[in-house]
């Protein structure tokens, strides 16, 4: 048994089940309402006592940290699958589609990444784990000549950031709209553009676009 195992012995079966129940409840609430929910809210949603919640997590920040680790492990798995794809172009597509699918409808994920309670060290650790894999995906695609030669791994990250905003704004009216802009981006970086990807969803009308862009203002006034 390692020192780490002695320092953190395995939880009893019921304690482990309660911890998992609390994490799933927090995931649901963060995705729906963002990070303003309290540990009491999480306990109530999980159907456990507040005392039980505080035995598993000292505060909400520990819940956020545990969920971020889960989310980033999922993104890392997607990135490794993409890097292992025998077709470099499919690898780029797989990474973006998979990473965005993990964010789809999850309002809490972006807030977790930008939450100051995590600290720079935690965010740096996430970057150090995933950025080299994304770099490998991009460099493989560039070496194969299937993407423009000036593409950078950071471009894939900023595209996700941009599309997460589209997701957040359009989740009620047109939840799949982000896929249209992902297709436009992919066509913009590929070197073989003899044929264009069929866009997976229609564009919003002028009125729908106005509704989406002003939704936050309407909420603030109500």
What does this structure look like?
- It contains twelve helices and no strands.
- With 222 residues, it is mainly α.
- It folds into two domains: 9-58, Homeodomain-like (Arc Repressor Mutant, subunit A); 61-221, Tetracycline Repressor, domain 2 (Orthogonal Bundle), CATH 1.10.357.10.
- Helix 2 packs across helix 5 and helix 6 (88-103) packs antiparallel against helix 8 (119-143).
- The longest helix has 25 residues, at 60-84.
- The N and C termini lie far apart (58 Å).
- The model is unreliable at 1-7 (pLDDT under 50).
- It comes from Phycicoccus avicenniae.
- Residues 16-75 form the HTH tetR-type domain.
- GO terms for molecular function: DNA-binding transcription factor activity; transcription cis-regulatory region binding.
Q: Which labels suit this protein?
A:
single chain, 222 residues, mainly alpha, Arc Repressor Mutant, subunit A, Tetracycline Repressor, domain 2, 2 domains, 12 helices, globular, disordered N terminus
């Amino acid at each position: 048994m390692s020192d780490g195992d002695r320092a953190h012995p395995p939880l009893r079966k019921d304690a482990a089940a309660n911890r998992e129940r609390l994490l799933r409840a927090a995931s649901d609430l963060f995705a729906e309402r963002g990070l303003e929910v309290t540990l009491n809210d999480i306990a109530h949603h999980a159907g456990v006592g507040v005392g039980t919640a505080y035995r598993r997590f000292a505060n909400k920040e520990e819940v956020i940290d545990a969920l971020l680790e889960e989310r980033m492990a999922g993104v890392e798995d997607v990135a490794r699958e993409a890097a292992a794809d025998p077709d470099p172009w499919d690898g780029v597509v797989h990474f973006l589609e998979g990473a965005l699918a993990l964010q789809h409808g999850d309002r809490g994920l972006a807030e977790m990444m930008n939450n100051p309670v995590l600290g720079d060290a935690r965010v740096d650790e996430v970057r150090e784990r995933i950025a080299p894999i994304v770099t490998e995906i991009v460099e493989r695609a560039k070496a194969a000549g299937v993407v423009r030669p000036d593409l950078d791994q950071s471009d894939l990250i900023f595209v996700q950031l941009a599309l997460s905003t589209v997701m957040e704004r359009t989740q009620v009216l047109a939840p799949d709209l982000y896929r249209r802009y992902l297709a436009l981006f992919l066509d913009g970086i590929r070197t073989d553009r003899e044929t264009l990807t069929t866009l997976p969803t229609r564009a919003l009308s002028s009125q729908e676009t106005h509704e989406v862009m002003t939704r936050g203002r309407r909420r603030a006034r109500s």
